[in-house]
Predict the structure of long-chain-fatty-acid--CoA ligase.
Amino acid sequence: MTRNTTGLQKKYLGVSLTLPMKLKEDMNPLLLQVFRSVVWVCSFITFLPWYFLSGAGTNLDRARRVKARSVSGRPAGPYRATNQVGGIHQKLVWSLHLGVDTLDKVMVHGATRFPERDCLGTREVLNEEDELQPNGKVFKKVILGEYQWMSYEETYQAAVCFGSGLAALGQRPQCNIAIFCETRAEWMIAAQACFIYNFPLVTLYSTLGGAAIAHGLNETEITHIITSKDLLHSRLMAILLEVPRLQHIIVVDSKPTSWPGFPRGIMVHNLVAVQELGVAVARRQPLPSDIAVIMYTSGSTGIPKGVMISHSNIIAGITGMAERIPDLDETDTYIGYLPLAHVLELSAEMVCISHGCRIGYSSPQTLADQSTKIKKGSKGDTSVLKPTLMAAVPEIMDRIYKNVMTKVEEMSSVQRTLFVLAYNYKMEQMTKGYRTPLCDSLVFRKVRSLLGGHMRVLLSGGAPLSAATQRFMNICLCCPVGQGYGLTETCGAGTISEMWDYSTGRVGAPLVCSEITLKNWEEGGYYSTDKPNPRGEIVIGGPNVTMGYYKNEVKNREDFFVDSNGQRWFCTGDIGELHPDGCLKIIDRKKDLVKLQAGEYVSLGKVEAMLKNCPFVDNICAYANSDQSYVIGFVVPNQKQLTVLAEQRGLRGSWEEICNNPDMERDVLRIITEAALSAKLERFEIPKKIRLSAEPWTPETGLVTDAFKLKRKELKSHYQDDIERMYGGK
C-alpha cells in the first residue's frame, strides 16, 4: 500500500498531478523525453494563434481585477461588486428585465419572446426491467428514448389551465398549496400555475420523513397537495390521518389510475383532469411583495423550517445569478436533476426560463451512461441532451473526480503518463490565461463526454467544493467550474465566482443583488481586523434576503434584521475571509465548531472537507464531544479501494464483513491520518478512531439532505453505540 499512496492517489489532496515514482522507474527515458517533446510542441503550436484568438491577456486582467470593494472603506464592509450598475454606492440590482417584477411575468416574458422555442423536455421510457446483481439485490434498469419537448407557449398554456383547474377545486389566491414531487417537467408547470394565480407554493423535499412532511403540511394549513403516484403510495399514504385539513390530492402522472379509498373523503385527481376542469377565471395577479414560495429547508439541524420567499426576492436572486453566466441566451440547454424543492435548482431553472433556454429533465440515477438505472449499453441523459449548463452539488462532482482518477490508475503506464503531462501542462497554461485546444481534443475529450461533451458552464453550490475537485473539473471537463455561496434564506444568492477566475477554494465576489459584511465572532477568534485578510461571520444583505421563517418569530429575531435604510440582512452562521480582490472564502461554521477537553477548537466541516479527497473515503462525518480530548469519524469507504486493500491483506467475506473488520478500520485510519497530515491538519483535528459504514449515506437513508449535506443529529443517533464504544463507554 505504500506505493499506492505515494503516487497519483496521494496527490488527490493537492491541486496538481505528478508522475508516480514507480511510473518514472517503469518508463523508458527516451519515451518519457518523447512525451515531454510532444507537450512542448503542443505549447508552441497553441501559443501563437491562441494567444491572439483566445484573449489570454483579457482573461488574465479579468481574473486579477478587484471584483468587490468595501462601500464604507472599513475592513468589515459592506462589500459590493465593482461592476455594480452605477458604481458600488448605487442601489443593489433587483430586476432582470424592465417591468418583470413577479414570477408570473417571467413565464409570460419567455412565452412572448420565444413562443416556439423548446422549454421543458422529458425522455420517453421505452422499457423497464429488473436486473439481478451478484449480491442478490435486484436493481431496476430503464431504456430511455429521445427527449420530448413542450414549447414555451405550450408550457405557459398548460400552467394557465392547471391553475384555473386548481381554482375550480377551491384553491384560493394567497392560500398555501403544497408540492411534494420529484424533479420533473410537471413540477415546473405546477409551480408556474401557482405563480400565475398567486397561490403561495409550499415546497417539501421528496425524501423527508413522515413526521417532517406532516409538520410542514400542518404548519402551512394545506388543503391541496400536488404529488406523484410513487410518492403518494410510498410517503403520503402513511401520514394522511395526521393532516386533518387535507382535502385534495393532485397526482401529476399523466396516465389515469384507479385509486384506493382515502380517509375522510379526500379526493384524488389526475393532473390532466384538473386542467380540463379549468374555466376562464379572473385571477389576482401577485404583487412583488407577495409570498411566492414557502420553502422548507432540508432539516440538517432538526425539524425543517419554512422560509418565506417573495416574488421580488426570487427575481432579485436570479438577476444576480444571471449576471455571472456569460453569454446566457436561448441557445443554451440546461439539465435539471437536483431537487426542485432546493433553492439552487429552482433559481437555476428560473434563470433559464428568463432567458429562453431549454430545460431537459433528468435524475441522479439516469444522468450519465454509467448511472445506476441506465441499462448497460444504453445512453444516459447527458449523452442524449448534450447540455451546455448544469448545476451540481460537490458530492456529485467528487464522485466524477474519483471515478475518473480510478480509471486513470487503471491505464497503461504510457496512457497514464500522457494524461498526467497533459493535465499539468493545461493547468500551467490556464494560469496564464491560455486555452489548450489540442489537449482538450486529444486527451480530455472522453472525460468531457461524461457530461455530453458540450458543457460550457458548470456551477457548484450547496456545500464547499474542494480545491482539488474544482481544479480537476476545470481542466478535464474543459469548461469553467464556478463556486457559488448562498442559502435558502437568501434565495440561494450571495456570491458566485466569475467564469474566468480559475482560483480554487473561493466562492467569488458578492452578486450585483447583494452585499456582504463580516461580523466579529469573539468565541471563534475571528475579527474583521485580522491580518492579512478580514474574517468574521458572513452577513448578507439585499433585496434577495427573504421575509423570514414561517410562524417562527423567535428565529426571525435571531437571524434577520433590518437596517436604518430599510434593507434586510441575514446572519448566516458561516465564517468567511475576504481576499484583497473582493472574493470570499468560507473557512468555518459556527455550528460546526466544537471545543475539546483541552480547549482546542475543532471545525468539523473543515476536517471533513480535507479528508473527503482521500481515495478511500466516499463520505465522512467528523464528531467530537466537548468532554473528550480527541475527534472520531464515521466513514463511508470507497468500495473498490477497500476491496483491493482487503484482498492484499488476504481478507475474504461480504462487504459488510469487510467494513466491520477491525484490521480494515486500522488500515483505513492509518491512510486517513496520512492524508490529514498531507492536508496540514493539526494533530488534534485528526480523527483518532473511525467506524466504517457499509451503508452509503443517501437522502433516502435520512442521514444526509437532498443536497447531500450531513444531518449531524441523525448521524449521531444512528451511530450512538459506536460513539460510546470509541469514547470508551463500551
The first strand starts at residue 68 and ends at 70. Residues 29-53 form the longest helix (25 residues).
